[in-house]
Amino acid sequence: MARVSLTPPRTLVVRCVEWYARRTYGRVLDPVAALGHHPRALLSYLRFELGVARWKGLDPDLKALAVMASSAVVGCSWCMDFGYWENVRRGMDARKIRDVPVRRDSDVYTPLERDVLEYAEAMTATPPDVTDELSGRLRTALGERGFVELTLMVAVENLRSRTNSALGLTSQGFKDQCEVARG
After folding, report:
1. Are 73 and 162 members of one domain?
2. Euclidean distance between CA atoms 5 and 8, whole angstroms
3. Could you report the per-residue pLDDT of 15-71, keeping only the tens digit for each?
4. pTM score, two decimals?
5. Is 111 part of any domain?
């Protein structure tokens, strides 16, 4: 159960953000509702997320794997649920997303994808456990720009996952929409 009410005060900011969320995602996202108790923080966070969405230095599938691996380590069921929905909707192979928590036993990943998953997991550990060898392989494969974006995406997902987990936010059932048989 959420540790903060998911019914924020009905300010103009909250109403506008809720309208946008319903239009874009079909419902109000629980993190939006939770942050709605502090409209200035909500707006700042949304501006930040809009900026992050414009980063294009890393392959979207690699970015998704890094984000999902980080949220799996933190244990954010909301992030895992939404991330699965978001990436399947975008066209990513559902097996790759589904296997993130059991990545070591899965045969669906390329060597680069395995390095990205390992990096996200190592970076999310407390304290971080990133090695020079792994960083070097990723810098060579992705270039400096891609490596920096990968690092920042893992950090951003740590912010999201730790915030959502601390607020007690859990799955909203987004993944279930992907699992429905299409007729």
Report:
1. yes
2. 7
3. 999 999 999 999 999 999 999 999 999 999 999 999 999 999 999 999 999 999 999
4. 0.92
5. yes
Cα three-residue angle 3-47-128, rounded to 5 degrees? 65
124 CB contacts (<8 Å, ≥6 apart)? 69, 70, 73, 74, 154, 157, 158
Structure tokens at 132: 């020079």
Distance CA 31, CA 13 (A): 15
CA–CA distance, 27 with 35 (Å, rounded to integer): 15
**For residue 101, what is the DSSP state?**
G
- pLDDT tens readout for residues 115-141: 999 999 999 999 999 999 999 999 999
50 and 66 housed in the same domain = no
Length of the chain: 183
Asked if 84 and 146 sit in the same domain, the reply is: yes
Q: What's the rounded Cα separation, in Å, for the pair 73 and 149?
A: 19
Same domain, 139 and 162: yes
Average pLDDT over the chain, rounded to whole?
95
Q: How many domains does the chain have?
A: 2
The amino acid sitting at 97 is I
